[in-house]
Design brief:
Shape: elongated
Number of strands: 0
Largest sheet: none
Order of helices and strands: HH
Helix content: over 70%
Strand content: under 5%
Distance between the termini: 23 Å
Radius of gyration: 17 Å
C-alpha cells in the first residue's frame, strides 16, 4: 500500500499536535504550580520560555538522530 501525500500531511499534523500537547502539559506542570492571578508572573514566564525552548531543542535533536539512523539503515 502506497502512502499518499495527504496521509503524510495528516500524520505530521497529528505528530505536531501531540508534541504541542505534551510540551504544554509538561511546562505548565513545571512552571505554573498554582493559578492565583489572571496573568503569569515574570518568573513563570521565564520558566515557561526556557522550558519550551529546551523541549523544542530536545525534540529537534531526537528527530535529527532518528533521521540519521534511518538513513544509515537504508544504506
Amino acid at each position: 500500500m502506497e502512502v499518499t501525500p495527504v496521509q503524510v500531511a495528516v500524520a505530521e499534523m497529528k505528530g505536531l499536535a501531540d508534541t504541542f500537547a505534551r510540551m504544554s502539559e509538561t511546562c505548565y506542570k513545571k512552571c505554573i504550580p498554582n493559578v492565583k492571578e489572571s496573568a503569569l508572573t515574570v518568573g513563570e514566564m521565564s520558566c515557561t520560555d526556557r522550558c519550551v525552548s529546551k523541549f523544542l531543542d530536545v525534540h529537534a535533536l531526537i528527530g535529527a538522530e532518528l533521521n540519521s539512523n534511518m538513513q544509515k539503515s537504508a544504506q
